[in-house]
From TrEMBL:
Its main location: membrane. It comes from Empedobacter brevis NBRC 14943 = ATCC 43319. One of its GO terms (biological process) is protein transport by the Sec complex. This is Protein translocase subunit SecE. It comes from the Bacteria. Essential subunit of the Sec protein translocation channel SecYEG. Clamps together the 2 halves of SecY. May contact the channel plug during translocation. NCBIfam families: secE_bact. It is a single-pass membrane protein. Keywords: Cell membrane, Membrane, Protein transport, Translocation, Transmembrane, Transmembrane helix, Transport. Component of the Sec protein translocase complex. Heterotrimer consisting of SecY, SecE and SecG subunits. The heterotrimers can form oligomers, although 1 heterotrimer is thought to be able to translocate proteins. Interacts with the ribosome. Interacts with SecDF, and other proteins may be involved. Interacts with SecA. InterPro entries: SecE_bac (IPR005807), SecE_sf (IPR038379), Translocase_SecE/Sec61-g (IPR001901). The gene is secE. It is found in: Cell membrane; Membrane.
Length: 62
């Protein structure tokens, strides 16, 4: 059965060939992603607010 062999091969791949990050690397990368997410959210908020103000100026408040 090909499916069973695929699953067995996948476990072997995870066990023998995958390099997992250390806990400190994982913490550092998590902090980087969290900071990047917050910065992106602030940027998108600013762009959304700017576009809202520009459109309200052009079309008037409804």
């Amino acid at each position: 059965m090909k499916v069973v062999q695929y699953i067995k091969d996948s476990f072997v791949e995870f066990r023998e060939h995958v390099t997992w990050p250390s806990f400190s690397d994982l913490q550092r990368d998590t902090i980087i992603v969290a900071i990047a997410t917050v910065l992106l959210a602030i940027f998108l908020y600013a762009v959304d607010t700017l576009f809202t103000q520009v459109l309200n100026f052009i079309y008037g408040a409804f």
